[in-house]
Design goal:
Number of helices: 11
Helix content: 25-40%
CATH topology of the largest domain: Ribosomal Protein S5, domain 2
CATH architecture of the largest domain: 2-Layer Sandwich
Oligomer: single chain
Order of helices and strands: EHEEEHEHHHEEHEHHHHEEHEE
CATH class of the largest domain: Alpha Beta
């Protein structure tokens, strides 16, 4: 068996993302029926992973976030029992049994359920890590598709498509979903616009994570049953993704901020489970003190929110949200997607 590179460390990282508009239009069956579109951008928060080769037939996985570890043999059947299943599923999908085992170490800058696409970024990072380990010739599209298959098909975790492509490609992207096809359109956003966004945006943590499965079930159940409000909300989300893309490309910053608020109103129509009293309070207070618009960054029910503020009022918005017990941070965008590298050897 191959036990080469035993003194090599392989590392990978993939960025988390902010979804500005279009979330939900990437969740089946909407993209197959009507076609979806999402506008998103990656930020300087990441999922990290390190692989250290072993000289035996064992694999260990350690999560620094959960304080959990698992160990299994390369030839053992894997049990998906809720303990680090994302990592186990990635190993199961890509494992090359010609090689000896390895140790995996995982860490993420945001918890699962934060609304920043962290779990999908973890899977993308693992696929990139194992691609580098086995020197697989995979395109960015193939990496994102494999990561999607691992989380959505192998583990049957409900959700959309966008997060895998955002984490793999990085930067500002307008992503289109039509049937079984995904097209990532990288946007050439002017540096002044990026600077202006970073100057005026606030990233706000509600202090509460959520499992998105029940929200997505409710949302798509309403769509499947033909509920008018949910259907129109999805169509508005798709249209707003395009409008916000155009606003960014044309450097219409305040228009973008107002459209962010419209995207939140459209998103609320998808399911009554998306908004909570805490989220509503944060939104109302932010707008009262100078935010042009804002929204949750994921499925809803908790996690992070994003607000676009008037430049001379952002500090006041931050102060008021902190008084309510929310955690407030500035936004820095990340232009690059998945990265892998080797140390030693």
């Amino acid at each position: 068996m191959l036990a080469t590179d035993s003194n090599v460390l392989i590392r990978a990282r993939a960025p988390l993302r902010i979804s500005f508009a279009g979330g939900g239009t990437d969740v089946a069956p909407f993209p197959e029926v009507e076609g979806g579109a999402v506008l998103s951008a990656t930020i300087n928060r990441y999922a990290f992973a390190t692989l250290r080769p072993r000289s035996d037939r064992q694999v260990t996985v350690e999560s620094l976030d959960y304080g959990l570890s698992v160990k299994f043999g390369i030839d053992d059947p894997l049990a998906f029992d809720g303990s680090l299943d994302l990592a186990k599923a990635a190993v199961h999908r890509l494992l090359d049994r010609q090689y000896d085992g390895f140790d995996l170490f995982l860490h993420t800058n945001a918890p699962p359920g934060s609304g920043l696409g962290s779990s999908s970024a973890v899977v993308v990072t693992l696929v990139g890590l194992l691609q580098e380990r086995y020197r697989l010739a995979l395109t960015d599209y193939e990496i994102a598709e494999i990561a999607y298959q691992i989380e959505r098909e192998d583990l049957r975790i409900k959700g959309g498509l966008q997060d895998f492509y955002a984490a793999t490609f990085g930067g500002f992207n307008y992503i289109e979903f039509t049937g079984d096809r995904v097209v990532v359109n990288p946007l050439r956003i002017h540096p002044d616009t990026i600077n202006e966004l970073e100057h005026n945006l606030l990233l706000v943590y509600t202090g509460r994570t959520r499992l998105s499965d029940h929200i997505i079930d409710d949302q798509m159940g309403r769509y499947a049953s033909g509920e008018t409000d949910s259907l129109e909300g999805l169509r508005q989300q798709r249209a707003l993704a395009k409008e916000m893309k155009d606003a960014l490309l044309r450097r219409r910053h305040e228009e973008f901020g107002h459209l962010l608020g419209q995207a939140w109103l459209a998103k609320r129509r998808l399911s009554p489970k998306i908004a909570t009293p805490e989220i509503d309070e944060a939104y109302d207070v932010a707008v009262q003190h100078g935010a042009l618009g804002g929204k949750v960054t994921g499925a809803g029910g908790g996690g992070y929110m994003i607000f676009y503020c008037r430049f001379d009022r952002r500090h006041l918005v931050a102060e008021e949200l902190i008084k309510l017990g929310f955690t407030v941070a500035e936004v820095t965008f990340e232009a690059d997607g998945l990265k892998t590298w080797r140390l030693g050897g």
